Amino acid sequence: MINVYLDDLRPCPKGFVLAKNIEECIVLLQESNVNILSLDFDLGWNEPTGYDLTKMMVEKKCYAKEIYLHTSDSNGRMKMYQLLYQHKPDDVVLHNGPMPYELLEQYM
């Protein structure tokens, strides 16, 4: 089981695998058992966004056990949250914000 951190700029927390774009992230979701997934919205100029990833996750029915939205883009966060909330399976835990420090400490 792995934890995945999707971001093009921020450093990846210890205990997580970094995905710098949605293509890398979707491969990890499809080929690995993902425990925690933390998503950014803005992934670079003219690049697909975290919202594009959430659309792919819904389409492919491919989820992590727990999902956090660490983006600083409040509109992007709300779009991702609303889409995931409407379509995620009942056993997937969705958080409308970043991982708490206490959780990150467990992987340090």
Automatic annotation (TrEMBL):
<keyword id="KW-0132">Cell division</keyword>
<feature type="domain" description="Cyclic-phosphate processing Receiver">
    <location>
        <begin position="2"/>
        <end position="85"/>
    </location>
</feature>
<dbReference type="GO" id="GO:0051301">
    <property type="term" value="P:cell division"/>
</dbReference>
<protein>
    <submittedName>
        <fullName>Cell division protein FtsJ</fullName>
    </submittedName>
</protein>
<keyword id="KW-0131">Cell cycle</keyword>
<dbReference type="Pfam" id="PF20274">
    <property type="entry name" value="cREC_REC"/>
</dbReference>
<dbReference type="InterPro" id="IPR046909">
    <property type="entry name" value="cREC_REC"/>
</dbReference>
